[in-house]
Amino acid sequence: MAYNKLIDHTLLKQDAQPEQIVKLCEEAKQFDFMSVCVNPAYVPLAAQCLKGSSVKVCTVIGFPLGMNLTRTKVEEAELAIKEGADEIDMVINVGMLKAGHDEYVEEEIRELKAVAGQRVLKVIIETCLLTDEEKVRACLASKRAGADFVKTSTGFSTGGATTHDVALMRQTVGPEMGVKASGGVRTKEDLLAMVEAGANRIGTSNGTKII
Fold first, then answer.
1. How far is the C-alpha of 189 from the C-alpha of 155, rounded, in Å?
2. N or C: which end of the chain has fewer CB within 10 A?
3. Rounded distance, CA 203 to CA 92, Å?
4. Which residues are catalytic?
């Protein structure tokens, strides 16, 4: 397996500077990663740096809390795509899910997928804040709404990816959808454990070290 093509090479820190994004893109081209994952403000820069390469531009929507209005997320995604984003990682409204409003979560995902079209949409469910039953409901809502991936974490909450969560998510969505493990994947051993559990995409800022 080409492990490099599992990796979304990620820099989402609040203090990330333009030169660090350029370095991220150069590393992604060098190691032929699947994508770079950057905040929306850096999508134009990343798109420019990666032009002509096979590395995709991934960005995050409603990040990191997911508590924006749905129409704000929709407009944010539309702008990001216009600026050159190839993949969208959106954060669900965790509070609405926990309150039992699965239809709200599902409809929001559906609206974002309508914007993404043929582009990959990944749904961040923030597993560290959910019970196993809630994780299952979040995954099923994502699947019903037509998302391409479910993703464990933002990396900005109380915990990151675990093999238990990845396995549960894979069991829930079946083989038809992708599962992205993100948050705390720092070594090759971490990556292999997540793949073994069912992940087929890895979000990490340690991609060069892992490869």
1. 19
2. N
3. 17
4. 89, 151, 180
